[in-house]
Design a protein that fits this description.
- This protein is α/β, with parallel strands linked by helices.
- The protein has one domain: Rossmann fold.
- It is 30% helix and 27% strand.
- It is globular.
- The structure holds zinc ion.
- Zinc ion binds next to loops.
C-alpha cells in the first residue's frame, strides 16, 4: 500500500475502484488520491492540457481572478497588490481587462509557462484555480505555495470538493486521468495547520487562507 502523498502517513485505505484506476483515502489528512502507478507521464499530461477546451475554462478563470482581486482590494483598500496565478495561465488579453493600475499578477504553469524564478519570490496573494486536483506531489506543491506567500498574504484555491464515497462513484470529475488528488474540508484544515495559515473559508469549491503575520 503506498503512503499518502500529502501527509506521508501510512494509514491509507482502499476507497474506490473502477476499470481504469483505484483510489485510496488517507485516514490522517482525508486526501483521496489515485493509485500513483496510474499517474500520466509528463508528455501525456501536457498533451491532455493542450487539448482541453480552453475557451470556457479561460472565462471561468478570468471570473475567479476578478472576484478574488475585488475581495482582496476590499480587505486591503488603497494598497498595491502583487500576486501569482499558479498552475493555469490566463490569456494576457483577458488579464489586462481585469487588472487595476495598482495590481500586478505573475503567472506560472509547469507546462506552458515554467518560469521557476517566479516561485522564489513572495506575493500578497496566490491563486490556484482548478489546479489542486492535478497535483501528483501535493506535499511538494503545497510547500512551494506557502513559500511564495508574504506574511499576511492570502492563498485562494478553487477545487471541487469530494462530497462522499457514494457521490464519488458517480462523479464524472474523477474520470479525467489528470485529476489525481481530491480534497475534503478536513484536508484544508490539516493543510492550514501544517502551513501555519488561518483557514478563513472552505466551502463548496472555494478555499481562502491567510499566512500568519
Ligand atoms: Zn494524508
Amino acid at each position: 500500500m503506498p503512503h499518502c502523498p500529502l501527509c506521508f502517513q501510512e494509514q491509507v485505505r482502499p476507497f474506490f475502484e473502477d476499470r481504469r484506476r483505484y483510489f485510496l483515502r488517507c485516514e490522517h489528512c482525508h486526501l483521496v488520491f489515485a493509485n500513483p502507478g496510474s499517474y500520466l507521464l509528463p508528455d501525456a499530461e501536457k498533451q491532455r492540457y493542450g487539448h482541453a477546451k480552453q475557451g470556457n475554462k479561460q472565462k471561468q478563470l478570468a471570473r475567479f481572478i476578478a472576484m478574488l482581486l475585488t475581495q482582496l482590494q476590499t480587505l486591503q483598500p488603497n494598497s498595491t497588490l502583487s500576486g501569482m496565478n499558479f498552475g493555469r495561465v490566463l490569456a494576457p488579453a483577458l488579464l489586462q481587462g481585469i487588472l487595476q493600475p495598482q495590481q500586478q499578477l505573475q503567472q506560472y504553469d509547469p507546462f506552458f509557462a515554467p518560469c521557476h524564478q517566479l516561485l522564489h519570490r513572495q506575493y500578497d496573494f496566490v491563486s490556484c484555480y482548478r489546479v489542486f486536483e492535478h497535483f501528483q506531489q501535493p506535499a511538494k506543491e503545497w510547500q512551494r505555495l506557502i513559500q511564495a506567500l508574504k506574511s499576511g498574504g492570502y492563498l485562494a484555491i478553487s477545487t471541487p470538493f469530494l462530497q462522499s464515497a457514494t457521490a464519488f462513484a458517480k462523479w464524472h470529475y474523477k474520470n479525467n486521468p489528470t485529476h489525481v488528488s481530491f480534497y475534503q474540508p478536513q484536508t484544508f484544515h490539516y493543510l492550514a495547520q501544517q502551513g501555519q495559515l488561518q483557514l478563513i473559508f472552505a466551502q463548496s469549491d472555494f478555499v481562502l487562507m491567510q499566512k500568519a503575520s
